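Researcher: Here's my situation. A collaborator sent me these components and asked whether they could plausibly form a single complex. I don't have experimental data yet, so a predicted model of the whole assembly would be a useful starting point for our discussion.
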Amino acid sequence: MTATAPALADEKRPTPDKPRGRLRRTYDRSWFAWAMVIPTVVVLGVLVLFPLVQGVYQSFTNLNEANQSSEICTKTLGGGEECRPNPKQQKFVGLENYKRILTGETGKFWLQFTNTIVWTVSCVFFHYTIGLGLAVMLNRKFKGRGLYRVLLIVPWAVPAFVSAFAWRFLFNQNFGLINAVIRSVGLDPVEWFAHRWTALFTAIVTNIWLGVPFMMVAILGGLQSIDGDVYEAAEMDGASAWQRFRHITMPGLRPVSATVILLGTIWTFNMFPIIFFVTGGEPAGKSEILVTGAFRAAFEGLRNYSLAASYGVIILSLLIVFASVYRRVMKTQGEVF
Amino acid sequence: MGEILPVAAIDAAHVEGALPRDERRGPVTRRRERSILASVALHGTLIVAVFIALFPVIWVLLSSLKPRTEIVRSNIELFNSPTLDNYRAVLTETNFPTWFLNSVIVAGFTMVIGITMSASAGYALARFNFAGKRGLMWVFLITQMFPVAILIVPIYTIMANLGLIDTKLSLIIAYCSTAVPFCAWMMKGYFETIPKELDEAAALDGLGPFATFYRVILPLAKPGIAVTAFYTFLTAWGEVAYAIAFIQTDNKLTLGAGLQQFVPQFNQRWELLTPAAILILIPAALVFFFAQRHLVAGLTAGGTKG
């Protein structure tokens, strides 16, 4: 990616002796490349960019289930249909939706916002640290590491909603295994889904369980790309295990870490099924994060599409701000992507 | 994102605490003595981790073999009058087999289409410089940020206009749009690890770009394709939000959307949910089994380069 810009500039500059041939070749290669990229571009354009633009527009209207059609058609006695313009058609309301969300007039934005931050930070932190620890262990040579690796990746292969149900089952107040263990040590069983933070805790535990394998595999790949000779040299010079980890492993992992932490944050921030199924927002919507809150606004009760779209725009803006700050921080530390 | 930098090599020179020559022997032998203890600790930690990784699945499996009254009892035993009745019930008395079939179709098509699209896009991004390439890479990253919440309503409208609501096709298209950007990115990284000389040799032998891609490069990219297959299949197999929103008829539901009917607010039927969960795991486990040996190699290339 870094080397492409100058090469591209070179191709485009027509050389005096053979300008046409040069241009022609660039054109040919572009043509093949675009032919291969076009299906993806079309799908993304139609299903991501266009909906995005439309969603941003919708967030400034008051579109909901009741006013989405521009005409109201009623069956007449003769069997025909009579249509007239919908008097309550959706209209442009400017920043009204955003005002209602941010002031807490509808929904519980700030509660969900706090939940989302707690949720994302703790999930990504534990994903990364546990994943790193396991990867470092699996990167040593010992008997049976292939088996350990396969077994440790298993949670990744479990569909998110299945693990959500499994953990909800484990955390069940009356017949869940976790409360049974708590009871057997002589403590009172915990009503996991009756308090905001315990409910959120169950969801976070589930998501950590689910997300560690991806981090572990990605970091393991990164570790394997570090030259083993460097470790040997360091060991010869008497560097301790911690020094080797601190000064060889961590810098060597930087490119991988930068990518997976960014992707992990984005994915966790938008993680829908875990919260939706594990806590279901219990108690009374207090463990909802922004994404599930938006989904409920859009598809439960009176479907309020514009409100959901405004939620979406807010989520997207938060992530874009995060990604650019993150990128800038990485840049100051010498990593450009 | 940024090639792997030779950072490690630079930093090794700065490692502090280098010991003088004659002291070297000490630490080395001490390491060997420690290594029995260290390997006990290593295996111990890994066994605990494996236990945590497998436990929820095993617990659901054990529960699925218990009769209903035993599942919801507060005295918990590992085994209790094991029976396959729950499996029979979920397979014959519910819509589960239909949902299962629907999910297989949706996930299968998503996988095939997803691999085709991301492999060709990834190859183009890895091999050619073309106008708009950099922009496209950014678009791929940014699409990862779009929350379902913002897209779901406009996509719903588009699907409704195309008459696709309540069809499997709507789900396949939607899942491809979620999975392809990441996969194309990953495939690009993988293709970059395959020497360019191969393409040039193929071109000299008279193969066109498409034939080169299809007959020379693609067979070499198996690890990358395995990861893409795994990822696209799981995306479609485990997705819930689109499935709930787009599908309205009960016998067209996929697993993610259908299964929640077993655990409503009241009267939760865990004796149906647990066997269903185990059955759902089987196809995912099969795909995983074929893909797992390639996961590290396939994902590394994609994760470290951009």
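Model: Some features of this prediction you could bring to your collaborator: Chain B touches chain A through 120 residues (CB under 8 Å). Confidence is low (pLDDT under 50) at residues 1-31 of chain B.
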